[in-house]
Design a protein that fits this description.
The protein is of the alpha/beta class. It has ten helices and nine strands. It is elongated. About 5% of the residues have low confidence.
Length: about 290
């Protein structure tokens, strides 16, 4: 009788294992082999709580679809963490990751949504297995550079910005200040491309202009992100619930007479106004920067 019970039990166990084989397999992979991924993101002070139409912050650590994948990349980059692993839970996931590795344009665009201090200088995406992906980030700014820039911005605000000023006036005043103290770097061998180089050399290319403006806007608590076309980057600013283009670089023109010029053609303008002025260098991907 006992032998019969054992046989029935074993047969029942085999049936149960067969029916739930996928769930059991995933449990073993996640809990024993991958230890449930075991990854916990840490968030630094430059983390932005903002969600956008293209990407959103997420607490998901395993991608079940392509949007999950994009959201995980955004959240990791936005958090300021420099090493994070996540799991792929849909059949095309690793293939999608490899496409992101081969064509880094999407990752580069996602980088525009994060604070410049959390931006990457280099990002390494590695598929550890057929299910696990690791992200390692080398930051664009060092801790000493961040401290220097923060002090620079704080000193500027204390000396030039009053509580009675409107946000529009605060933005315009800094826009003018940057242009009056910066020259566009025409030297193709140097290409001074970040905010630290802008304030220490008084020269920069568009990425330096847009970074210093983004850092200033974040310090004031004004929502913004950087927006880019194939060869150019500028700022998109949310003021009173509406989004405006702000291109400090193009308001600081390079001219042959050697004089300094300050214009406001690209200051807080709509997309319609932007394309009336230029539809080539500012031809951004509307499927990514949907707020514009």
């Amino acid at each position: 009788m006992k032998d019969l019970i054992k046989i029935i039990f074993m047969i029942s166990l085999v049936i149960v294992v067969y029916i739930f084989r996928t769930n059991i397999s995933n449990f073993i992979l996640n809990t024993i082999i991958y230890r449930g991924n075991g990854e916990v993101l840490t968030y630094n002070e430059y983390y932005r709580e903002n969600d956008y139409l293209f990407v959103q912050n997420t607490d998901v650590t395993s991608a079940t679809n392509y949007q999950d994948l994009l959201n995980i990349f955004y959240t990791v980059m936005n958090s300021g963490d420099d090493n994070f692993s996540f799991m792929c839970e849909y059949s095309e996931c690793i293939s999608d990751v490899n496409k992101l590795i081969d064509d880094s344009e999407i990752i580069s665009n996602i980088n525009n949504f994060v604070h410049p201090f959390n931006s990457y200088y280099q990002i390494r995406i590695t598929t550890i297995s057929d299910r696990e992906v690791n992200i390692k980030i080398d930051k664009l700014y060092s801790e000493s550079e961040i401290k220097y820039i923060k002090n620079y911005i704080d000193d500027y605000i204390k000396e030039n910005i009053g509580d009675s000023m409107s946000d529009y006036d605060k933005i315009r005043k800094f826009h003018d200040y940057v242009i009056n103290n910066t020259e566009y770097d025409v030297n193709e061998h140097s290409r001074l491309f970040n905010a630290y180089e802008l304030i220490t050399t008084n020269k920069a290319i568009c990425s330096g202009y847009s970074d210093i403006m983004a850092i200033y806007l974040d310090t004031l608590g004004i929502q913004n992100y950087r927006i880019s076309s194939e060869n150019h980057v500028w700022n998109l600013v949310n003021l009173d619930g509406k989004w405006y283009h702000l291109d400090v670089t193009w308001d600081d023109p390079v001219v042959s007479d050697g004089k300094q010029y300050l214009i406001h053609n690209f200051f807080m303008i709509s997309t319609e106004e932007l394309f009336k002025l230029d539809d080539l260098e500012h031809n951004y991907d509307k499927k990514i920067y949907m707020e514009a």
